Structure prediction request, 216 residues.
Amino acid sequence: MVLDLSDVGLDGENVSAIPRLDDGSWILGFDATVAVPGVGDVQTHDLVRFVPTSTGAATAGSFEWYFDGSDVGLSTGAEAIAGVAVLDDGDLLITTTGNGSTGSVSFNDEDVIRFSPTSLGAGTSGSWSLHLDGSDVQLTASSEDIRGIGVTADGSLHFSVLQNWTVAGLSGENADVFTCASPTLGPSSSCTYSMFFDGSAEGLGVEIDGVFIGEE
Prediction:
């Protein structure tokens, strides 16, 4: 057990994004509107930061606003955040449950978009770009919509997806995490795939909908 969020007022809520920052705090997103203690109603296109004072089976800490999606063009149900990774420079990698547009960038649910913030919190601002075009890297089936995203220091991306997936002769289920290594980014994307975590082999029989790759 890393975080027991029922200890801090989120009993029964489904967390859909879980990156951890270098200071030990966690960024959380949800798959439905959630009344977060100390923050208020958090929509599916928003993120909060949890600052723990203790973790594990006896979790304690406080919440604060981290990212208000409606401030920067995420507002529809299809633009709900499915997965998030935070880069070393503070930019966010985001994938959504459906297709959408931020006004400057159009995207699909198999794509990864990048947000470069000028401010975060209740008054979020910044700019968007297309980070990875999922259809270019063989994520073309409806079952292959990205649901979790992690990133490592070498720039490799790590995905979980909605259901069964097949890429470049590699296949698996939604309980797996697979790696998109040495990515070429932007509108003409490419990468090399490998299995990172075989969830079924480890006894995990449920969808992974949040990924964080720790490097300690």
